[in-house]
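Shift notes (night). Ran Holliday junction branch migration complex subunit RuvA while the centrifuge was going.
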Amino acid sequence: MIGKIAGRLEYRSTDHVLIDVRGVGYLVYVSDRVMASLPRNGEAVALYTDLLVREDLLQLFGFTTLVEKEWHRLLMSVQGIGAKASLAILGALGADGVSRAIALGDWNAVAKARGVGPKTAQRVIIELKDKAPGVMALGAGLSAATGDEVIEADPAPAPRATPQPASTAQADAMSALANLGYAPGDAASAVVQALGADPQADAGVLIRAALQLLAPKG
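Came back to this:
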C-alpha cells in the first residue's frame, strides 16, 4: 500500500498530477480543492494517498490531510459512491464541510457535489451518520497532536496564548456525550450545531450547549 508520496510536481491535468519521486513518476488523482492548493510545477509537494486496486486498474488518489483521506475511504463505502464521486464531494465541501453536512443531516450540501444526486446524497447521510464521529475525532486528534497538513509552509509565529483548538474541544465534547450514553451520531450533530453558534467555545461550553440541544422537547 502506498500511503504517502513526496517529490517534485512534474505537471498537472484537470483531475490528476504527476509527481516525480527520485526519477519515478506517480500519477495521482486529486479533487478540485486539492488541485487548487498545490504548488507550482517544479516545486516540492507531498500528498497522503489511497491506492485503488482492481483487476485491470491501479489508481492513486491524493489528499493534503490524513482526515481527508479517511473521509474518502468512508465515502467510498457508501453504495453508489465511487472514487470520482468521493473526490467530487470532498472537492465541493472539504473534510470539515463533509463532517458538518453528515453531522447535521444536510444532504442538500452533499448533493451540490458534481455528479451526486439527491438520492445518493441522502444515502451518504443515512449510512455515515454513526460512522462520521470516528473520523471527526481522528481529525481533532491529528490537529491537536501535530497538525495534519502535509504540504509544508513557513512556520507562523507562536501565539502568546494557546486556547483550546476548536477541533480538540469538539472531540472532547463528543467523547463526554458518548460517555453519558448519547449515540455518536446524535452527539456529533449537537456538538456541530453548538460549535456553529460559538466557534470559539471550549469543551465545557460545547457540552452544555449540546446537552440543551439533546434535551427532550416539550
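The radius of gyration is 19 Å. Strands lie at 4-12, 16-21, 24-29, 44-54, 57-63.
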